[in-house]
Each structure stands twice: as structure tokens, then as C-alpha cells.
UniProtKB/TrEMBL annotation:
UniProt organism field: Pelomonas parva
Keyword Membrane: yes
Protein name: diguanylate cyclase
Catalytic activity field: 2 GTP = 3',3'-c-di-GMP + 2 diphosphate
UniProt keyword Transmembrane helix present: yes
Transmembrane segments: 219-240
Matching InterPro entries: Diguanylate_Cyclase, Galactose-bd-like_sf, GGDEF_dom, Nucleotide_cyclase, Rev_trsase/Diguanyl_cyclase
The enzyme's E.C. designation: 2.7.7.65
Enzyme class: transferase
Secretion signal, residue range per the UniProt entry: none
Length: 436
């Protein structure tokens, strides 16, 4: 599986995981906590008797906290109910600030159609609860008794409000009027507002609430951080990959350059082989044709003078016959080297065939070409070739002029050479002239 596919599968998995993490965040983050009356917190019956009323409460032994209550008419707001104290000192309660839902398992019978649930929060900011219970903040909600289904009612803590009478009674500053649950010291379930007089029964079995160790905001932040970290990781990996691709491409391009260079050298070698005589290193017939063609083009374009010098070894057959064919070969190679070493770089030597050479002299008039030929003749005649062989050569010289095509100039040089041979060899003959 390639990098791209792996990446796409990982991305898809990450998207699915993120969607699941967001969708099931409640289930993942929330953990249910159960409180049963008396374990570990104390449950108490409460009534308006503490406000001077004469409603009567009795606790019936049995499962849960079973309370019977006769609501009687004396106190202005008769009430009765159950109080669950999280701290008997009314100081250090439980922190429900991250709790959203709370479920009460409760059986209720009575003439009132509403019940009150109160979460009393203590804080030095609005009173000293150990001296006066009432000073704990009155976070409360009034629920309809119909909302108790199968003995259970679920409360959303965001729907709680702070009782106005409590704000007024304790002269609480308006900015403290929002519900707070960070130190709940008491949970109270009582008869609702203006409950009718009569007999009531409350049975509180248990309380369950969901705690969230990580807030939803923090959960989203974690998901986003993971995405960010993965994106950075991906970019980093991509950077590494790109670097390796660039390195590979550089390597490949370097190798290609090397191959090209080798091919260039080889092709130059091939061109040279195709145009060079292997024995003497001079141009071969094909190379000479190219050289002559180029020289002719230059001559036509710029009218630069062009001299041709034909060189033919004298009695070469005798060299072969006397010293062997290989010695003859060495003489030919030595002659070519001697000539090349004593002419200008622009003068090009080719082997016309057998023991015959053609020296193409650019920018050279006939007298200069004759002078070059004479210089070479003397050099050849005075040179000791391999095996201390001595030879002479004959030279026929001609020069390009506007009236003749090249083949006629060449023929003139050939004719001059013939005359040099006929004239006794080891001499230079120029076209139209005698021996130099
Ligand atoms: N060793 C050697 N001999 C060659 C080569 N090419 C041609 N020859 C010989 O060169 C000789 C040329 O002989 P000829 O044409 O009779 O001319 P020559 O003996 O030089 O006499 P002149 O040119 O009249 O002075 C022949 O014997 C060829 O075999 C070569 O590449 N190597």
C-alpha cells in the first residue's frame, strides 16, 4: 500500500474517530456517581417546624429514606421534605460544578403537583453556613410530579435558579445571583410552592449524577491538539520525503550528466574514428572531404586563399620490400607526425590513399604553400624514421582561385606531383611552375 493510500486511510480513521469522540463525548467523559441516603451522607427529615410551623414528619424504617409528612396550617409557607447533608459541619460539601445531569430515584405521593429540589451551596462570599444554615445559596428547581417516571426524575443543573427571597433576605450582591454548585453542602427535596395541606409520602432511594473529569471544552481542545500535532507530523514527514525525492532526483540527474558526458566522449571518439586514419592519425578520405568542403565554403564566403599540397613517399614499395610491411607502416605514421608537428594548427593533413597525403593549407597563397612544401620536403629527407630508415617524398602544390572548381585545383596538384616524380623525386613542383 502506497504512502498516499496509507495517508488516506489514516485520515479517514482519524475523521471517524474524531466524529465518534465528539458524538459520544458525554458517554466517554461522564462517569456516574451514586449516593444513597445514609451512605455515606446523612439524610434527615425536615419540615416547617424549624420556622415555627406545625407540619409533622415521621421516618418509616424500610428501604431508602421513607418519609411521611402531614402538612398543617400554621407557618405562612408550610413545607416538609428530605435533607441530605454532605457535610454535617456545613462547610465542605461536594463539588458539582462540572455536573450537568442528576437523577433522583424517588417515590412520591401527595396532593401537591410540584416538588422542589434545592442544592444548597456554601461560600464565605455570601454567608457563614455553620452558624446559619439558611445562608447557603438556594439553587433550586421546581419540578412537576408528573415528570417522575418509573420512580426516576432527571434534572439538568443548568435549569436551576437562585431563589429571589434568599437574595433579598441575605442582601446578596446581584453578581452572586447565579447558581453555583462548587460546594454543595445539602440536597433538599421538599413539597413545592404553595403545596396543599394534607398527607405526603417521599421515598428517596438513591441519587445519581454524572461527573466529568475533563470539561467538554477541554475535550474539544484535546481533539484539536491531536489534529494539529498530526498535521505537523504529516508536514514534517512530507518534508523529509520531499527532501529524499530531491536527493534522489539530484543523484539521478548527476548520473544522467555522467552518462551524457560519457556518450559525448564516445560520440566524439566515433566521429573521430569515422574521419581519422587509424595508422597515421591523419584525416581519412571521408575526413578530408569534410575538411575540403569546409575550406571551400570559407573560400567562397571570404575569398580566403587555399593551398593544396600533395605528398607522396618516393619508392615506398622498395621500403616495404626491403624492411617489411610493418616498417613501412611505421614510416607512414612517422611521416604524418613529422608533417603535423611542422605546420600551423589550421593546416590539416589527410591520408589520400596508400603512401599519398594531402595537406590543406587555409589562408595560404600558392607561394606560401610552395614554401611549406619545400620546408617539409627538406625535413622528410633529413629525418631518421623508426629503424633508422631514410626516405624522401615528392610534393605537388596548387592553390584555389576564382576560375576553377576544387577538383580542378586538386587535379593541378596531382599533375604537379606527377611532374615532381617524373623530374627525379624528392622535390616540390607547383602547378604551372617547375620544381621549386
Ligand atoms: N606498409 C604499407 N605499405 C603501403 C600501404 N599502402 C600502400 N602501400 C604500399 O605502397 C606502395 C606504393 O608503391 P607504388 O605505387 O609503386 O609507388 P612507389 O613505390 O612509392 O614509387 P613512386 O611513388 O613512383 O616513387 C605499394 O607497394 C603499396 O603496397 C600501407 O598502408 N602500408
Amino acid at each position: 500500500m502506497g504512502f498516499r493510500w496509507r495517508f488516506e486511510y489514516s485520515l479517514l480513521s482519524m475523521v471517524l474517530l474524531s466524529v465518534a469522540a465528539v458524538h459520544f463525548s458525554d458517554e466517554l467523559l461522564q462517569q456516574a456517581r451514586v449516593i444513597r441516603p445514609g451512605n455515606p451522607f446523612i439524610a434527615e427529615a425536615m419540615s416547617d417546624q424549624r420556622n415555627g410551623g406545625n407540619s409533622e414528619v415521621t421516618r418509616v424504617p424500610g428501604a431508602g429514606f421513607d418519609l411521611r409528612c402531614a402538612l398543617r396550617d400554621r407557618y405562612r409557607y408550610p413545607y416538609c421534605g428530605i435533607a441530605l447533608r454532605f457535610d454535617p459541619q456545613l462547610l465542605k460539601g461536594i463539588d458539582l460544578s462540572e455536573v450537568r445531569r442528576m437523577r433522583l430515584w424517588l417515590d412520591y405521593k401527595g396532593p401537591a403537583s410540584t416538588l422542589k429540589v434545592q442544592l444548597r451551596n456554601a461560600s464565605p462570599a455570601y454567608g457563614i453556613p455553620q452558624t446559619e444554615n439558611e445562608s447557603a445559596k438556594y439553587n433550586h428547581i421546581e419540578i412537576n410530579t408528573d415528570s417522575v417516571h418509573n420512580g426516576m426524575v432527571e434534572l439538568d443543573l443548568r435549569n436551576f435558579v437562585v431563589a429571589n427571597w434568599w437574595m433579598q433576605q441575605f442582601h446578596v450582591a446581584p453578581h452572586l445571583g447565579r447558581p453555583e454548585f462548587d460546594n454543595v453542602i445539602t440536597l433538599e427535596i421538599t413539597t413545592g410552592t404553595e403545596a396543599p395541606l394534607g398527607n405526603y409520602r417521599f421515598v428517596l432511594h438513591k441519587i445519581e449524577y454524572d461527573v466529568q473529569h475533563i470539561s467538554t471544552e477541554r475535550w474539544y481542545l484535546i481533539i484539536m491538539s491531536i489534529w494539529l500535532a498530526l498535521a505537523l507530523l504529516y508536514l514534517f514527514m512530507r518534508l523529509l520525503r520531499l527532501q529524499s525525492v530531491v536527493r534522489q532526483q539530484r543523484q539521478q540527474s548527476h548520473e544522467l550528466q555522467e552518462i551524457n558526458r560519457a556518450l559525448d566522449v564516445r560520440s566524439q571518439q566515433l566521429v573521430q574514428m569515422a574521419t581519422t586514419d587509424a595508422l597515421t592519425g591523419a584525416f581519412n578520405r571521408k575526413g578530408l572531404e569534410d575538411v575540403l568542403q569546409q575550406a571551400l565554403t570559407d573560400w567562397r564566403r571570404h575569398q580566403h586563399p587555399l593551398g593544396l599540397v600533395l605528398i607522396d613517399v618516393d619508392h615506398f614499395k622498395a621500403v616495404n620490400d626491403t624492411h617489411g610491411h610493418q616498417a613501412g607502416d611505421r614510416v607512414l605514421a612517422g611521416l604524418a607526425e613529422l608533417v603535423r608537428n611542422h605546420v600551423r594548427g589550421q593546416d590539416l593533413l589527410g591520408r589520400w590513399g596508400g603512401e599519398e597525403f594531402l595537406l590543406v593549407c587555409r589562408d595560404t597563397h600558392l607561394p606560401q604553400a610552395v614554401a611549406i612544401a619545400e620546408k617539409l620536403r627538406a625535413l622528410v629527407a633529413g629525418h631518421h624514421f623508426s629503424g633508422d630508415l631514410r626516405i624522401t617524398a615528392s610534393f605537388g602544390v596548387a592553390a584555389m582561385d576564382s576560375d576553377r572548381p576544387l577538383d580542378q585545383v586538386f587535379a593541378a596538384a596531382d599533375a604537379a606531383l606527377y611532374r615532381a616524380k617524373a623530374g627525379g623525386r624528392n622535390r616540390v613542383v607547383a602547378e604551372g611552375l617547375g620544381a621549386a
